[in-house]
Amino acid sequence: MEPRHLRLRAVQVSTQRAQRFFLFFFANLAVFAVNFLTVNKLSSTIFTVSRLFLVPLVRMGRFMPKKKTYHHGDLKNALIKAGVEILAKDGVSGLSLRKVAMKAGVSHAAPYAHFADKQALIAAISTEGFRQLYERVSGVAEEYQNQPEKQLVEAAWAYVQFAMDDPDRFKVMFSGVLEKEKEYPDFVTESQRNFQLVKMIVEANQASGRLRSGDSALVALSAWGIIHGFILLLLEGQISHAVLEKMSLRELVEFQLEQIQVK
Questions:
Q1: Does residue 148 carry a pLDDT above 80?
Q2: Residues 136-172, buried b or exposed e (16+ Cβ, 10 A)?
Q3: What pLDDT is recorded for position 21?
Q4: What is d(CA 50, CA 73) in angstroms, rounded to the nearest whole number?
Q5: What distance in Å separates the CA atoms of residue 243 and residue 174, rounded to the nearest whole number?
Q6: CA-CA distance, 87 to 66, in Å (whole number)?
């Protein structure tokens, strides 16, 4: 049998080993717990900060006004409108498709889907202007087709009103800035259609005896020239206040037409 002191020594060693094992185990367990709690606390903090800052930003994004864009159907008209405004302010030298795109709020490449260059844009501006002018004057001409003299006066007044309603476009239409007009068949068609309408009204008044006989194209040119000159003076503010105080604009238009009518 082992001596008693040896057995006690063995028990002491075993006890010390067990103590060291449990100390090591619980120490590591404590480190793990601290790390776990730290990581989770950090995650919780990050999550909280994210909610504080990201959620409001997302909500703001939902209600922020969206950037204005043009659909394919109205892009061309938006570009034409922008072109008119630039031409009125800066003239043809200040017009470029890049400036038009910026003013319309679209990409620099967008205008090229409709216009090859700025001359094509000017042609479109003028073409659309003549189309609108024809619609307005032809509507009046049809309404008074059985009253030639009334038809002449109302057509002339519609022409004046068109110029006053959209003076910038009107000035572009007759500015002469469009080069090589024949390369733009739509422009040629619309402008000629308007003159043919004036010619038709003149011929009706020649037939009724209100306008002198002769080449209807030349008489139409005289009638158009008188009213067009009046409009330009009006738009440039060159009609004196003394004259404007005596007669209304409508009365002045009628007075201009009386100068070419048969007494």
A1: yes
A2: ebbebbeebeeebbebbbbbbbbbbbbbeebebbbbb
A3: 58
A4: 42
A5: 26
A6: 29
Which pair of structure tokens corresponds to residue 66?
């969206």
Closest-CA residue to 119 (of 97, 147, 152, 142): 97
- Return the H-helix or E-strand segment holding 87: helix 72-90
pLDDT of 23 > 70? The answer is no
The model's pTM: 0.69
Provide the pLDDT confidence category of residue 84 given band limits of 50, 70 and 90. Answer: confident
The mean pLDDT value for 112-138 works out to 93
Alpha carbons within 13 A on the beta-carbon side of 108 = 3
Contact in structure between 220 and 260 (CB atoms under 8 Å)? no
Which of helix, strand or coil describes residue 196?
A: helix
Tens of pLDDT, residue by residue over 223-243, are 999 999 999 999 999 999 999
Output the six-digit token pair for 128. 């659309």
Q: How far is CA 8 from CA 16, 96, 219, in A?
A: 12, 105, 141
- Asked if 78 contacts 104 with a C-beta cutoff of 8 angstroms, the reply is yes
Cβ within 8 Å of residue 145, ≥6 positions away: 151, 204
4-18, 188-202, 231-245: least confidently modelled range: 4-18
Compute the distance between CA of residue 184 and CA of residue 30 in angstroms, rounded to an integer.
87
Other beta carbons less than 10 A from residue 193's beta carbon: 14
